Amino acid sequence: MEILNFEETKNLLLKYKIPFCKTEIFNSKAKASEFAKKIGFPVVIKVHAPNIFHKSEVGGVKVGIKNLEEFYVAWDEMKKRTRLEKIEGILVQETVSGSELTIGMKRDPQFGPVLMFGLGGIFIEVLKDVAFRVAPFDKKQAMEMILEIKGHKLLQGYRGRERVNLNKLAEIIVNLSKLSMAEKKIMSIDLNPVMANKKSILVADFRLIV
Predict the structure, then answer these.
(1) Which domain range does residue 53 map to?
(2) Dihedral, CA atoms, 140, 144, 145, 151, nearest 10 degrees?
(3) For residue 48, what are the contacts with CB-CB under 8 A and spacing of at least 6?
(4) How far apart are the first and last CA of the chain?
(5) Has this prediction a pTM greater than 0.85?
(6) String of b and e for 54-69 (b: at least 16 CB within 10 Å)?
(7) Residue 5 in domain
């Protein structure tokens, strides 16, 4: 198994209306820096490769890059760290704030695509607060899935937290269900984190495995 290349990944996310942060892939530092200036600092850079499943373990993620000088340093360091890896390129991405969510899919040999939803970051790592559904399902079932996790109140403005558009979130989960049913070659999907705030819900990191 390997990670789907960036262009195919981007096209699938666009096709199934799964919104993601402004992101492009580069092998040219000059072109990458122009894109960074275009989308505005701070930016994030990440390595994208068919066989690097955990980017941070190879030094393949750098966040909070505030200007061109920091960008050039981070780019050179990442190239150096991953020089022995077979990489497709380096992703340059806008920085988005909000609540961290995770949405995923694994193709079970018996049940087919099984989708997972939960809070991202430490919540999924420590609390394992997640809900599952077998695809396909509709928006009503997606909303039930969202409200099933213990932490759903955090998405509804609990104690001053920013409220998340749950209606839009349910639509994205349904669209991922549709992608999972139609695109048989995709064996698993990991969208983590998905950054959610009152204005938008955007996938910040994606991994589609074929």
Answers:
(1) 22-94
(2) 140
(3) 3, 5, 6, 25, 87, 88, 89, 90, 91
(4) 6
(5) yes
(6) ebeebebbbeebeeee
(7) no
Q: Which residues pair with 102 in a beta bridge?
A: 118
Count of residues in the chain: 210
What's the whole-number mean pLDDT along residues 3-30? 98
The set of residues, in sequence order, having a beta carbon less than 8 Å from that of 109 and lying 6+ positions away, is none
> What are the residues whose beta carbons fall under 8 Å from the beta carbon of 199, sequence distance 6 or more?
none
How is residue 93 annotated by DSSP? Answer: E
Verify that 104 and 200 share a domain, yes or no: yes
Here the tokens at position 39 are 């989308």
Residues 162 and 197 in one domain: yes
Containing H/E element for 32? helix 29-39
Quote the CA–CA distance of 114 and 30 in Å, as a whole number: 41
> 10 Å Cβ neighbour count for 93?
22
Report the CATH number that the domain containing residue 200 is assigned in CATH: 3.30.470.20
Are the beta carbons of 12 and 79 closer than 8 angstroms?
no
C-alpha 83 chain-centroid distance: 24
Of the residues 62, 94, 126, the one at which a domain ends: 94
| CB of 55 closer than 8 Å to CB of 43 | no
Residue in the block written with tokens 């609540």: 99
- Predicted confidence (pLDDT) at residue 102 exceeds the cutoff of 80: yes
User: Is the confidence at residue 127, as pLDDT, over 90?
Assistant: no
Tokens matching residue 195: 């950054």
Show which of 30, 60, 94 is a domain's final residue: 94
